[in-house]
Amino acid sequence: MAKWGEGDPRWIVEERPDATNVNNWHWTEKNATPWSKDKLKALLQDFVISGSGQECKIVEIEKMDGEATANNRKGKLIFFYEWNIVLKWKGTVDNEDVTGKVSIPNLSEENDVDEVELTVSVDESNNASEKLKVFMYNVGRDKLRKQLDTYIKELKKDFAKGLILPKKGTEQDEVKVKPDKETVYASGFNKQKIELQTVISEPKNVGCKLDVKTLETFERFQCQANELYEALTRTDMVTAFTRGHVKLDLFKGGEFVLFGGNVCGKYDEIIPNKKITQTWRLKQWPAGHYSNVVMELVQKEDHTELKLTQTLIPSAEFEATRANWNRYYWDSIRSAFGFGSFLY
Fold this sequence. Notes:
It is built from 5 helices and 15 strands. It is an alpha+beta fold and about 350 residues long. The protein folds into 2 domains: about 30-160, Bactericidal permeability-increasing protein, domain 1, CATH 3.15.10; about 210-335, START domain (Alpha-D-Glucose-1,6-Bisphosphate, Chain A, domain 4). It is globular, with a radius of gyration of 24 Å. The N and C termini lie far apart (about 50 Å). The relative contact order is 0.10.
């Protein structure tokens, strides 16, 4: 099998004026990388972010690594794009110039735009820079996500043209472009992605009651309470036991993203070394549904006890969620940091 992006001559069909890709059966592919770079530069370079009496400007695109392709298989459009972008921004507050960066490490089709990670930093830390950092975090990220959303929509619109050929007996302008794919994940925090075609049905009234359950579990770790707290909150330590890139904004209302975007939410309460409260969800749960997670740490004489209480778990996901906490959190933490496991 050919590597992704290289193409295999047995399956890739070149675009031909005689429309030999009958009924769009074969895989056709367009390189959208050059177009994407131009579009992203147009949307981000010199972009002005203003609001609440403050203003910042994207003055340079320091880094833009990645690629994008548009594909058609059996009349279904599939878009692949993955970008790592670093932007330099500048603003003025209290008559002081402030500079910093916005990092977008994983703009890809795997995540919805509102789930794309944007990390804000400043070049020098002082009162003025902290003011603009908060502004860029609360206002700038949302405005930049709208620019990224524009890129995605225009990518799909522009590259849908001509990618699906008319079937026999139809005119080109009669060809309907099917809605974009949805990404559905099987159970587990680290999951294999499955691409499913969107099914359109008549509008229905929504708001059905969801059957939910509560999970309570106790875990013991051979370490101090502060060590376990750091394992759950320090970016480098969480990266170590989850084995992947993470996002942790460790303050009330701050966001977290783990396991490639499959686990996400916000911090509701943080008491160092004692308690972490989160609004928490798995990506495959019903849209907009979150559970509440409370992790309480209690220092014992020779170990630390952790009590996990998770409410509002969809009943259909209860057993998988219980198993995943054990596998991807507790067992992984013990293995990564040598916090041991009790046999009794």
